[in-house]
Design brief:
About 35% of the residues lie in helices and about 15% in strands. It is an alpha/beta fold. Helix 2 packs antiparallel against helix 8 and helix 3 packs across helix 5. The longest helix has 20 residues. The N terminus is likely disordered.
Length: about 350
């Protein structure tokens, strides 16, 4: 259930297109980007049959896990994720590739997938920073709605951490089968290798009341320093479920050093699709302290810690939004909604109190 739109096209706020260089919009200057080359592994019957299962049996939200993987694969020049192509599958790779190609041909200021690329890099960097903040070298990292996330295979900072991936049973089963296929295919030197200390998958629905119990039965230790990762998921939950999840995590800070990493949509963003997006917060930096977190830091796309060299154009949509007060819901230039995505790090520990 690891879903964010690779095509979270906030460019609906602005119809501005301009001549943009590849360097300005974050894409490589090499024209070879236009060629989509599928690996031999992707074309095997085993992998195609697994992706056929996804197409036939997964619902829309579950399938967006593949869309997220495709976005990471298409932005491989900034995101190191060797398994992304495999987990995305041919259909989603072609879809995202065509959207990027169209944006490039139109000289768009915002290229499809740029939000996903920045979000991925932000979470990567914040996971490492959170682990470094713990006094103890050993820690746990819990990925809620893990989807096709592969951080347990690509982040070296997890080498002393136990990683738990929580998602629907059918998502985890297909993902495991795809990775196992990669383990058995071709040159052993190219087989995926786990970088985490351990990886445990937990079949659970975080909208239900038993997901934390299932997590503990799988080896999660409440007394151990933990980083909770909610990437591209919280806004798909109903308000009651989102608040329950956030409160459960906040309560852990009474026992042990706890870090929450999550992205939040503001209310205008949910109007992109009211049938898909539910929970929103215009002020997550005010909400989270009321739940028990003592320290909260919020960033927007394009801020110094959420830039990564991909937001160089001052007239880019996200830089325009950053110049407006967050209380502004409608853009004064054209009356369009100010759709924002907030990247939030919150933490707490037994010896800290909320302000």
């Amino acid at each position: 259930m690891h879903y964010l739109l690779t095509t979270f096209h906030y460019s609906s706020n602005f119809s501005v297109l301009s001549q943009m260089s590849d360097q300005e919009n974050g894409l490589p200057e090499n024209p070879q980007w236009q060629e989509l080359k599928l690996s031999q592994l992707l074309l095997t019957d085993t992998v195609r049959n697994l992706h056929a299962t996804i197409d036939a049996q997964w619902d829309y939200l579950q399938r967006t896990a593949c869309q997220t993987a495709a976005g990471r694969a298409m932005w491989k020049h900034v995101i190191h994720d060797p398994l992304a192509d495999l987990l995305a599958g041919e259909t989603y790779l072609r879809n995202v590739h065509e959207k990027i190609k169209k944006d490039r041909l139109n000289n768009a200021r915002e290229i499809s997938g740029v939000i996903l690329a920045i979000r991925t890099l932000w979470f990567d960097s914040q996971i490492e920073a959170a682990l470094n903040s713990f006094n103890s070298r050993e820690a746990q990292v819990v990925l809620l709605g893990a989807g096709m996330d592969t951080r347990a295979y690509r982040l070296n900072c997890l080498k002393e951490s136990d990683v738990f991936e929580v998602d629907f049973s059918q998502v985890l089963q297909v993902k495991t089968a795809l990775i196992q296929t990669a383990m058995e295919f071709g040159d052993e030197q190219q087989h995926p290798r786990m970088t985490a200390k351990s990886l445990t998958t937990v079949a659970a629905d975080i909208r239900e009341n038993d997901w934390l119990e299932k997590l503990q039965l799988s080896g999660y230790k409440p007394e151990k320093n933990t980083v909770w990762v909610l990437e591209g998921i919280i806004y798909y939950l109903l308000d009651i479920h989102a608040m329950q999840v956030l409160k459960l995590i906040a309560d852990k800070s009474n026992l042990v050093h706890t870090v929450l990493l999550a992205d939040f949509m503001n209310q205008p963003s949910t109007t992109l699709s009211s049938s898909i997006f539910h929970f929103s917060s215009d002020w997550p930096d005010r909400l989270l302290p009321t739940l028990g977190f003592s320290n909260v830091r919020l960033s927007q796309i394009g801020d110094p810690d959420a830039h990564f060299g991909l937001m160089n154009d001052p007239l880019n949509l996200f830089n325009k939004l950053r110049s407006l007060p967050r209380s502004v819901q409608t853009h004064p230039d054209d009356g369009t909604p100010c759709r924002r995505l907030y990247l939030v790090q919150a933490s707490g520990s037994p010896n800290q109190t909320t302000a």
